Amino acid sequence: MAATALQLNPEPIAVECDESKFQELTDAITRYSLRFRRIALRHLSNIADAEDAVQDALLSAFAHVHQFRGKAKMSTWLTTIVINSVRMKLRRRLSSISLVLDETDAKQDLTLEESVSDSRPGPEEAYRQREVVEMLSHATSRLSPTLRTTFQLRDIDGFSIRETADLLGVPTGTVKARLARARMKIKEAATKSIR
Fold first, then answer.
1. Separation in Å, CA 137 to CA 142, 148, 156, 193
2. What tens digit of pLDDT does each residue of 120-173 get?
3. pTM for the structure as a whole
4. 90, 43 in Cβ contact below 8 A?
């Protein structure tokens, strides 16, 4: 008969369970609230946002305390909720970033393309870069095949001195000497073309 009474009225057991979860939750909040604020502040770097994130997390924890299964400590469960709240705050922050224009730009009703500078080189800079490339190419082509190959492997292809020496089958000192001669000849050619 007692078993029948329990089956007909299981609610008091659930209420007692929820009350113990609420008590455990409030104890964890009291004990670890400073820790939660530190975690939020470390990620958000703003006291107001950190407090908002912790408050949102704690409200969420109270609303979903019945989902706490007890597989981890209450403090661990709360920490996870705080971290998720911080992540949501960061996502909202990223989506709300907007470009602030100067007052003069706003008054002129410029479009975004007109107000943001172009980082590509201008025509003069592009021409100067092309001249430098052509000059270096010409100077490199005037090197002897031995010096050109050594220069190509080391300075253009980026091989180390040891790798260049192994590829050419010569000692590292020979590679260093050839590189010094090649660089000196390229420098001389560049100086002559500038004059």
1. 9, 11, 11, 12
2. 677 888 888 888 888 888 888 889 999 999 998 888 777 889 989 988 999 999
3. 0.43
4. yes
> 54-58: long-range contacts (C-beta < 8 A, 24 or more apart)?
54/82, 54/85, 56/85, 56/88, 56/89, 57/81, 57/82, 57/84, 57/85, 58/29
Give one DSSP letter per residue of 160-189, joined into a string: -HHHHHHHHTS-HHHHHHHHHHHHHHHHHH
- Nearest Cα neighbor of 21 from 82, 74, 57 is 74
Tokens (6 digits) for 171: 């000692």
Contacts of 101 (CB under 8 A, 6+ apart): 110, 115
For the purposes of burial, counting CB atoms within 10 Å of the CB of 30, is it exposed (0-12), middle (13-18) or buried (19 or more)?
Answer: exposed
